């Protein structure tokens, strides 16, 4: 955005982001990817950068449209009418807050937004200083309230995890642990060749990994292998086949914590029967 404004003299009409439904025929020339310029009466009217929005699984949701207009005052009315029309038809982007943010915090966020707007509407320097001080205080209250909500949310998750661990509900414990850990993914490491050059093609990266592990694992036997003596005392480990009662108990523990008790009993009986048949044949 900054490069467009510096190089071509464009400025964003408004800070909001418009979202077009996936099957909308409105502004068909803007939907897609890349840069689209509409020309009216041989005068450049506006420019829109569109980005398609996808879910994590790749399904198409909608199209985000960023509208820009020239800095010429002649097109000021045109930019305003364009923004009003797009706000009416497309609507603004809806922001979804976190589930753990309380209603009181949302009210404070709204109040902070009003304080921010009051700064831009001030006419004198004294009013602006006063409005900035009020905004700083409102911002502190918002951050303090968000930290309190996050702490309360984490404590509730920890209590739920402890209860699930005591009851042996492994599914609920695993789901709660994932929520506590958050979504953290390690960045992909750059694959380089022997010469130190970066490899970008996927097939060449795979070939490089194969070559690397072949050199790493296919090594000659050591000249002086270590002489490891056998243990003098054998550990008390039972190596006999498991008994029928042990199989039943293991099957019960495996299916413990299922959502439905009826499904639990049926699955337990079915699995136990199969294992017992296999045990008897062996």
UniProtKB/TrEMBL annotation:
- Topology within the bilayer: Multi-pass membrane protein
Name the GO terms of the biological process aspect.
Answer: protein localization to membrane
Residue spans crossing the bilayer = 26-48, 60-84
GO cellular component term of the entry, any = membrane
Top-rank lineage group of the source organism: Eukaryota
Compartments, as annotated in UniProt: Membrane
> Has keyword Cytoplasm?
no
What is the name of this protein? Transmembrane 9 superfamily member
Organism, as annotated: Schistosoma margrebowiei
